[in-house]
Amino acid sequence: MDQIEPFAEITHQAVVFPEGMALDCGRMLRQVTVAYRTYGSLNAERSNAILICHALTGDQYAADTHPLTGRAGWWANLVGPGLPIDTDRFFVICTNVLGGCMGSTGPRSPHDDKPHEPWGHDFPPVTIRDMVRAQKKLVDHFGISQLFAVIGGSMGGMQVLEWAATYPEAVFAAVPIASGAHHSAQNIAYNEVGRQAIFADPDFNNGEYWRLGVIPARGLAVARMVAHITYLSEAALTRKFGRRLRDASSLTLLDDKFEVESYLQYQGSAFVRRFDANSYLSITRAMDFFDLAFDRDGDLSRAFAGTRTRFCLVSFSSDWLFPTKATREVVNALIRGAANVSFVEIMSDKGHDAFLLDEPDFHRTLAGFIAGCADHRGLPHKETV
Amino acid sequence: MDQIEPFAEITHQAVVFPEGMALDCGRMLRQVTVAYRTYGSLNAERSNAILICHALTGDQYAADTHPLTGRAGWWANLVGPGLPIDTDRFFVICTNVLGGCMGSTGPRSPHDDKPHEPWGHDFPPVTIRDMVRAQKKLVDHFGISQLFAVIGGSMGGMQVLEWAATYPEAVFAAVPIASGAHHSAQNIAYNEVGRQAIFADPDFNNGEYWRLGVIPARGLAVARMVAHITYLSEAALTRKFGRRLRDASSLTLLDDKFEVESYLQYQGSAFVRRFDANSYLSITRAMDFFDLAFDRDGDLSRAFAGTRTRFCLVSFSSDWLFPTKATREVVNALIRGAANVSFVEIMSDKGHDAFLLDEPDFHRTLAGFIAGCADHRGLPHKETV
Predict the structure, then answer these.
(1) Of these four, A279, A332, B7, B135, which has the most CB atoms within 10 Å of its CB?
(2) Radius of gyration, CA atoms only, chain A
C-alpha cells in the first residue's frame, strides 16, 4: 500500500471566502478557499490584470517553481519579464481551480459537515462555471472590475469561454487555446477510462482512501497514462520513441520492452506524487459536463450575444483532443454574434501539448494579440505601481 | 474477488502436435495444440482452402455461435453459403492463435515443466510469426500444400502479411485488412496502458491469479475499454452517443453520467467473462513486436521479394488505429517488389471496427477479389468433395 504523500501539508497563498458559494448542482459550499499565485504588479487603475486558467492537471504555479516537484512553472516559457505574457507590463493571477488539490476548496478540504474529515468522494460535483465563479470572488477581492485578459489552454480555455459568457463586462480580451465549447464523446470516453482505472484500484476504497492512509496510486497512474497519450500527436510519439526497444534480450510477459512504455510509466508514477485521485474525478467530471450551448437551446452564439470582449482563439493542427474544428465551432458562433474575433491555427506536429511547449508561431501570436489589445486599451508599456 | 469463470472447461476442436515447436524467443514448446473451426468442404485437389486469421480478442468461432457468449461468429456476416467468403465454394479454416485462451496453446495451457499448473505469466513470449508457424502445422495436417487465400483484419492482417512473407509458396492470395507491417508508437502506447491496468489490479497477483481462484477482472475491463475507444472513430462515437446523459438528476463523483460511459463499462465487463488476462498480455506483446521490416534492414519490400501471391489490401478512411497510410506503406513495398497488388480504401466513418461491420463496399471488394482469384485459379463455382 502506498503512503499518502505529505503534499496536503504545504501552505499555499490563498483567500478564504467565509460567505461560501452556491454550486450549479444545487448544493452549497459554506466556505470557499481560492489558492493563487500572482506575478508582476497591479497598476493604480487596476486595469492591467491577466487571469491565467490552468488545465486538468495544472495548478496556480504557472511561472514559479512548483513546491512539490521543484520544476519550473507550467507556463514559465510564456509568463515573465519580457515574455509574451509580460510581467513587466501586466499583473498576472493564476488560481487553483475549485475541485483541485493545491489549496483551493476541493475533495481534500475539510468537509462542511465533518470538519475533522476531508470531503473525499462526498465533495459536491463542480462545473467549469463554478470554477469561474470562485475565480471571480478572488478578482473582486483584488478590486478588479475588469480583467484585461483571461487566457488558458485546454480546460483553461473552457474557463476562458465561461468567463466571457458569464461575466462579459469583466473581460476585455479572451484567449481560449486548444479548447472547445464542449467535450466530445471521445473525450468523455477517455476520461471515463481514467475514472474506471481509479475505481478499479482497491486502494480507492470508494473514495475514502484517506481513511486507510493509502492512495489509489496504480489506478491514478493508469488514468494519467491514457490521458497522456491523447496529449501527444502520433507524429510526436513516433519522433520521441518510434519503436525503439529498451532491452530485447530478456523477454517475459511482465517486462516493458519499448521506450514509450517506460516513458508512460514514468509519467504515471510522477503524477500520483502531486495529484489527488478524488480531484481527478471531480475535474474530469467538470470537463465532461461543460457544454456552453446546453442551456442555450443548443445555440452557442447566444453564449456571446452582444459581447464587447476581443477574442483570439488558437488551435494546433495536430491536436486531436481539441481539434481545430472544435475551435472553429466557437469562432463561427462568435462571428454569428458579431464579436471581435481572430483565429489562428498553428501548424505544429506536437499535438495538444503544443500549448505548453516552445512553439514560436504560437508565442508570436499571443504576444501580438496581447500587445495590440493593450495598446488599444491605452495601457502603458512599463507599469509602475 | 471474482471467481474464475468456467470457460477453461470447454472442449474445443483441436489438433495436438506432440513434436512441439521452437519459438522466436529461443524457447521451445514441447507440445503444441491448435484449436480451430472449419466451414464448407475441402475439395479433392485440396485447392479451395481459405485460412481466416482473427484479431486480438477474436477466436476461431468466426462463423458459428460462440460457445461462451452464445452470439453469432465475429465474421458471420462474411463467411457462409453465398457470402463473400462463400462456404459453398471454399473450405474455410479459422484457428485460435498461439497465446490465445480458446483451446490453442497459451498461458492457460498446462506448463511444460509443471503439468498440474497452467503456464500463466511464465508462458514464453510468442510472435506473430510463431502464431503463423502453428497455423502452418494445422494446414500441413490437412494435407494442404497451398492455401487458396489467407484473410484477416487488424492483428489478423499482420498474420496474413507474415504468411505471405514466411510461406510465399503456400499462399495463392492474401487479403490483409485494416492492418500494417508494424505497430506505431501510439498503438504500443495504448497496449501498454491496457497492460498497466491489468498489472495494477491486485487480483493479477503477478500473473498467478489462478492460484487464488480469481481473475484481474477490473484491470482487464479497463484494458478493454481503452482499446475499444481506438476501434471506433470519433464520428462513430459521436453518432452512437454524442453527449447524451443517462440521468443527470443525481450528481455524485462516483456515478457514470453519459451513455458512452455505461457502454464502455458494458464492453469491459462482458469481455472479462470470455478472455484471459495473461493471454491479453501475450497477444498484445506479439502485436507490439511485429515488424516485418525489422530483420530485413528496415526494407519492407524484401519481405515480399519475388512473391507470386496476389494481394488485395483494404483500409478504412476513418481507421486511426491502422490508418490508410499504414496500408499504403505495405502497398508501396509490394509494388517495389513487383508484386500483384490491388489496394482499396473504403470510405467509412466507422473506424477500425468497420472490418467487422456490414460495409457494403468492403464486402463487394472482398467478394470480387476472391471470385476473380478463384476463377483465375480455375476453381469450380460449387465444390463437391
Answers:
(1) B135
(2) 21
CA dist., res. A241 & res. B320, Å (int): 19
- The burial of A267, by beta-carbon neighbours within 10 Å (0-12 exposed, 13-18 middle, 19 or more buried), is given as middle
- In this structure, how many other beta carbons lie within 10 angstroms of the beta carbon of residue A245? 14
Show Cβ contacts of residue B113 under 8 Å, excluding neighbours closer than 6 positions. Answer: none
A281: chain B residues, CB-CB within 8 Å: 253-254
* A183 contacts B261? CB cut-off 8 A: no
Question: Closest chain B residue to A290 measured between Cα atoms?
Answer: B243
For chain B positions 215-244, those within 8 Å of chain A (CB to CB) are 218-219, 221-222, 225-226, 229, 234, 237-238, 240-243
Nearest to B34 by CA among B8, B57, B7, B13: B13
Whether B353 has a binding-site annotation, put simply, is: yes
Residue A385: pLDDT band by 50, 70, 90 thresholds? very low
**Are B125 and A282 inside 8 Å of each other by CB?**
no
Task: Say whether residue B123 is in contact with chain A using an 8 A CB cutoff.
Answer: yes
Where does A90-248 have alpha helices with state H? Answer: 128-141, 155-166, 185-200, 217-231, 234-240
- pLDDT given for residue A268 in this prediction: 76
Of B253, B257, B272, B290, which to mutate for an interface test with A (greatest number of A Cβ within 10 Å)? B253
pLDDT band at B97 (very low <50, low <70, confident <90, very high): very high
**Contact across the interface for B222 and A256, Cβ inside 8 Å:** no
User: In the A/B pair of chains, how many CB contacts fall below 8 A?
Assistant: 167
CA distance A123 to chain B (A): 8
β-bridge partners, A34: A15
Of A189, A201, A289, the CB nearest to B200: A201
Domains in chain B, please, with CATH? 6-184+293-377 (3.40.50.1820), 187-284 (1.10.1740.110)
CA distance B345 to B326: 11
Cell numbers representing residue B125 in the block: 513470449
Q: Are the beta carbons of A192 and B260 separated by less than 8 Å?
A: yes
What percentage of residues in chain A have a pLDDT greater than 70?
92
Cell of residue B157, nine digits:
492482417
Do residue A251 and residue B125 have CB atoms under 8 angstroms apart?
yes
Single-letter residue type at B16: V
Per the annotation, the verdict on B116 as an active-site residue is: no
Between the CA of residue B19 and those of A197, B16, B113, B134, B370, what are the distances in Å? 43, 9, 16, 12, 35
Q: Do B285 and A184 touch (CB under 8 A)?
A: no
| Residue among A277, A218, A199, A196 nearest B262 (CA) | A196
Query: Cα(A128)–Cα(A192) distance, rounded to whole angstroms?
Result: 18
Catalytic residue among A282, A315, A319, A348: A319
A112 is catalytic: no
Is A319 an annotated catalytic residue? yes
Nearest-CA neighbor of A4 among A174, A279, A210, A234? A210
Question: Helical H runs in A217-316?
Answer: 217-231, 234-240, 259-272, 277-289
Distance, CA of A112 to chain centre: 25
ipTM over 0.90 threshold: no
Using alpha carbons, list the distances in angstroms from residue B185 to A263, A271, B158, B287. Answer: 12, 21, 16, 12
φ and ψ at B130, to 5 degrees?
-60, -40
Q: Which of A350, A313, A309, A317 is nearest to A331 (CA)?
A: A313
Residue whose entry in the numeric block shows the C-alpha cell 516552445: A358
The string of pLDDT tens digits covering residues A190-234 is: 999 999 999 989 899 999 998 998 999 999 999 999 998 999 888
Q: Which among A192, A202, A257 is the nearest to B264, CB-wise? A: A192
